Amino acid sequence: xxxxxxxxxxxxxxxxxxxxxxxxxxxxxxxxxxxxxxxxxxxxxxxxxxxxxxxxxxxxxxxxxxxxxxxxxxxxxxxxxxxxxxxxxxxxxxxxxxxxxxxxxxxxxxxxxxxxxxxxxxxxxxxxxxxxxxxxxxxxxxxxxxxxxxxxxxxxxxxxxxxxxxxxxxxxxxxxxxxxxxxxxxxxxxxxxxxx
Amino acid sequence: xxxxxxxxxxxxxxxxxxxxxxxxxxxxxxxxxxxxxxxxxxxxxxxxxxxxxxxxxxxxxxxxxxxxxxxxxxxxxxxxxxxxxxxxxxxxxxxxxxxxxxxxxxxxxxxxxxxxxxxxxxxxxxxxxxxxxxxxxxxxxxxxxxxxxxxxxxxxxxxxxxxxxxxxxxxxxxxxxxxxxxxxxxxxxxxxxxxx
DNA sequence: AGATAAAACGAACACTCGTTAGTAAAATTC
DNA sequence: GAATTTTACTAACGAGTGTTCGTTTTATCT
Lengths: 196, 196
Known about the structure:
Chain A is mainly α. Chain A has two domains: 41 residues, Orthogonal Bundle (Arc Repressor Mutant, subunit A); 137 residues, Tetracycline Repressor, domain 2. Helices cover 67% and strands 3% of the residues of chain A. The first copy, chain A, has nine helices and two strands; from the N terminus they run E-E-H-H-H-H-H-H-H-H-H. In chain A, a hairpin with a 2-residue loop joins strand 1 and strand 2. In chain A, helix 4 runs antiparallel to helix 5 and helix 5 packs antiparallel against helix 9. The radius of gyration of chain A is 19 Å and the shape is elongated. The N terminus of chain A is likely disordered. At the A-B interface, helix 8 and helix 9 of A face helix 7 and helix 8 of B. Chain A binds a DNA duplex through helix 3.
């Protein structure tokens, strides 16, 4: 019954997914081979299939973990007693933090979801669409209440989200600009553009 | 001496690159095969090699065309007699326009440059780094002259550029939000976040 | 300890990949 | 119209793909 734990509480499957996330980000899902991955795990390619079912199962695990993290946080924020503007700031900060703490995972979820097989692809896109719609609604409410300037909500959401996902470029120059400086500056920029 | 022109002034090589840009965007460079491309061009895969030298030559052509377009425009703006803020607005608008008019090309240049072979990869990254540094300098000057709020210039550049590159998500909902509305709203958002 | 389950292995399968060689068809030049 | 160049074709190569098979090694449980 008991499973092998390679280190602490992580199963070998978790190790595989973690190594894969680094590899998928570096080379892209398509260009990263199972033999590549196996070498990083320290095992032969065939042995991987004792722990996973397919290459794309790894991608699914990564993409949906990220999607669920964002969705959970959104729901928590939505039911909080804050202004729409403050809620947006919380969400923006969460996105930035996720981008910094779970860089590989978020990056892959952002860039490699195309390679998801059906029906997971449609599922993923549906979830993303709903998430964005919720953010749009939040901004629309902020405008109605006079907290935000009269901007097209969906455009604002698009601008916001892609601005944040661009932190990937920063990841290599993190010595020059420390994380908290980056976060505060981005929030300043992005929230200021929303304020009335 | 005279070459065949498939349509108007475009050589067959141009046709191949154009079809490839659509394919590379849809499937990604790695997942798009030469046989795929050949089918879209209406020819056998081997025949492509009468017009191009390799698959990655196509990628090079696309990436460097886009990079040069942006660089040319930047140099033109730099020598114009405008305020730093106005210059930034011109650049932002140009980026948005490029994203709308040359969607496939810009998208590929943004997302598939990783697959460039050396030494083109290093070349490309150098060019991009210089471009971003120029934008940073422009913003720094805007801050010095009191036109912009005191924000970390490099963070602002990162935020700006990636916000714009996110228009890709909008491309499918262009019926709901017309191009000029998108452009004006994005400019409003992004410039407002810069203003003092 | 022996029995049982889990994990690793080498080899192979059935493909697909970018690309090349050799040749036939088509277009251009003279 | 013949000669020449350009383009497209079929066939194939060698390498790499994700994955499966049958077996052996390793770990866990009684």
